[in-house]
């Protein structure tokens, strides 16, 4: 399996509780390397664009409002099989269904305030990385 990149967001519920370091350590301990990272306040337009595939879902407006309720940390993670590795360490979307030891099991508050986002495929990872980062901000 070749080295690949994925995209991660440390969400407002985690930054609010000062968990940026704790979450990042779990990512690093899982074998992922942070090759880009920035703390930003997303605009409503940015969040709506990012989650555009969910526009028709009943939770869309609440999701966008939550994602702009405080700062987030957007990151590019690199490693062997990075997309799958990141999804494994994140745990299930709903923390009630997440495995022991995963980020969402340990830290998430609810299905909405679930502490982290991670790309679900290499193709989406590229789109999501390009949405927030220019090439010169990523240093592998
Ligand atoms: P994320 O991986 O960021 O992608 C979409 C987000 O929508 C998801 O994580 C959840 O935090 C959020 N969400 C809120 N409600 C639901 C729901 N009922 N089903 C799926 N995702 C939800």
Write up what this structure looks like.
The model has no long low-confidence stretch (mean pLDDT 98). The chain has 7 helices and 4 strands. The protein has helices spanning 12-16, 20-29, 44-50, 60-67, 82-90, 103-107, 122-132; strands spanning 3-10, 33-40, 72-80, 116-118. It starts with a strand and ends in an 8-residue tail after the last helix. With 140 residues, it is an alpha+beta fold. The protein is 39% helix and 20% strand. The radius of gyration is 14 Å and the shape is globular. A 4-stranded antiparallel beta sheet has the order 2-3-1-4, sandwiched between helices. The structure holds adenosine-3',5'-cyclic-monophosphate. Adenosine-3',5'-cyclic-monophosphate (CMP) is lined by residues 54, 59, 63, 93, 111-112, 114, 117.
| Ligands bound, unique | adenosine-3',5'-cyclic-monophosphate
Question: Measured on Cα atoms, how large is the radius of gyration?
Answer: 14 Å
Global geometry:
globular
Number of helices: 7
């Amino acid at each position: 399996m070749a080295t690949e990149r994925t995209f991660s967001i440390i969400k407002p519920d985690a930054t609010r509780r000062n968990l940026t370091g704790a979450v990042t350590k779990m990512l690093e301990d899982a074998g992922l390397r942070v090759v880009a990272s920035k703390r930003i306040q997303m605009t409503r337009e940015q969040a709506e664009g990012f989650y555009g595939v969910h526009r028709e879902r009943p939770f869309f407006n609440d999701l966008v409002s939550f994602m702009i309720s405080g700062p987030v940390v957007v990151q590019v993670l690199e490693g062997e099989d990075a997309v799958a590795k990141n999804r494994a360490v994140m745990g299930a979307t709903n923390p009630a269904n997440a495995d022991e030891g995963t980020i969402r099991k340990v830290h998430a508050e609810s299905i909405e305030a679930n502490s982290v986002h991670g790309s679900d495929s290499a193709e989406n990872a590229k789109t999501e990385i390009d949405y927030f980062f220019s090439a010169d901000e990523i240093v592998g």
